[in-house]
Design goal:
Length: 410
């Protein structure tokens, strides 16, 4: 038997039993589709995270309270309150050469009201360097002044969304709002920036850091601080000096562990890349189980086909078909079923990934649809291997059938 005849005959058998063929392929369709979708969604999520972090530039350095491992975040990232960072730490770090701007953040959440309008919002106590650090701009009015921190002034700058919610078409400048139980004057409104991974500036209110600490929160520590370095080549020496200053500020002696964590944006990107990569591999491995299930399904259906086609096998052997011809025939059918299932799975997984990207983009996130050639080739290759592996036993069983006994089979 030549290859052309084998493929043609296999296709004829697949078409002749459409329902059975579809059920045989279903596990493969789901498995391959899952692999494609998971890898595409994982790549899209990774791209989104990176794009959000890169908005701030590669020369941003963050300091969080609490120690951390080299390849992991500190406990404060997960909501654990650690009080080791202070406003004075930020002021000392601001004196380091090559640092262009530094701001502490004293973060909280409370109800904000203006006349009959009220809503719960996040607020941050910051300094005048905030605009430089966050690459933000003022739409109207001004931002917080440095001396307003020293005087614990009760002035506020509104995110664009908050200004719209509270004042609608009314000019908010000079108006009084209540943050918690305290009255604040609105001195500025930020330009619309949208949601980012680190925060949504449009839905926040900014006040002087000292005011947030003393008036709104009643604390002496800060949540985090960020600094902007003039050039990326200076990040390493700046981080070293920051660590030295903070250890001195906190009275940490030689041999003792830091009670803070310093990370540059590039380090953060590396950590996130490692985490998202590990998650993608883990989810891909789970999806691969569906491929194995699909392979078992193919083997079971092919074994049923051997039983149903016993007379056909006996007839073909009686007219001269050899064992290798029977083996090749059933293997070809198994591989074709697997390959067709893989193609349908690729299409289905791609369509699902497109729907996810469209929906996520529609709710305000810039989400890319990323389907790599590697993921497609990997899925097809694994599917082909599974077709061969799980098709061997049924093909071998069919080839072992005795021609005369097969012809007598009812």
């Amino acid at each position: 038997m030549n290859t052309k005849f084998t493929v043609k005959f296999a296709w004829k058998n697949i078409i002749a039993n459409k329902r059975r063929s579809f059920l045989t392929m279903l596990g493969m369709i789901i498995g391959v589709g899952s692999v494609i979708a998971i890898m595409a969604i994982g790549a899209g999520a990774e791209s989104y995270v990176f794009s959000q972090l890169e908005v701030f530039g590669g020369n941003l350095v963050g300091v969080t309270p609490g120690a951390s491992e080299e390849d992991g975040p500190p406990a404060s990232v997960f909501g654990v309150v650690i009080t080791t960072l202070t406003y004075e730490d930020a002021k000392e770090i601001g004196k380091i050469n090559h640092i262009m701007a530094v701001t502490p953040y004293a973060n909280g959440n409370t109800k904000v009201s203006y006349r009959d309008k009220a809503k719960n919002v996040d607020f941050s106590g910051v300094t005048s360097d905030f605009l430089e650090v966050e690459n933000s701009k003022i739409e109207k009015g001004r931002f917080i002044l440095e001396d307003e921190n020293d005087s614990v002034a009760r002035n506020a700058v509104l995110g664009n969304g908050i200004a719209r919610d509270l004042f609608e078409d009314e000019d908010p400048l000079g108006k009084k709002i209540k943050i918690g139980q305290e009255s604040f004057s609105v001195v500025g409104v930020l330009t619309k920036k949208g949601s980012s991974l680190l925060s949504n500036q449009d839905e926040q209110i900014y006040v002087p850091a000292r005011t947030a600490q003393k008036v709104l929160l009643g604390i002496n520590h800060i949540s985090i601080l960020r600094a902007k370095v003039d050039e990326e080549k200076n990040i390493a020496p700046v981080i070293a000096e920051m660590q030295s200053i903070l250890r001195n500020q906190h009275g940490i002696k030689t041999g003792m562990n830091d009670d803070f964590s310093v990370r540059s944006m590039s380090q953060a990107l590396d950590i996130i890349g490692t985490v998202t990569g590990a998650i993608s591999v883990f989810l891909g491995a789970i999806a691969a189980i569906s491929l194995l299930v699909g392979g078992v399904g193919i083997m079971n259906i092919m074994l049923v086909a051997v039983t149903e086609r016993t007379r056909e096998i006996g007839l073909r052997k009686a007219i001269g078909a050899k064992r290798k011809d029977i083996i090749m025939q059933f293997l070809t059918e198994a591989v074709m079923l697997t390959f067709i299932g893989a193609v349908i799975g690729i299409i289905g997984g791609s369509v699902f990934s497109y729907i996810v990207a469209t929906v996520v983009s529609a709710v305000g996130y810039h989400w890319e649809l990323i389907i790599t050639l590697n993921s497609v080739l990997l899925s097809v290759s694994v599917a082909a291997i599974i077709g061969l592996v799980f098709g061997i036993y049924p093909a071998y069983k069919a080839a072992k059938l005795n021609a005369i006994e097969s012809l007598r089979y009812e």
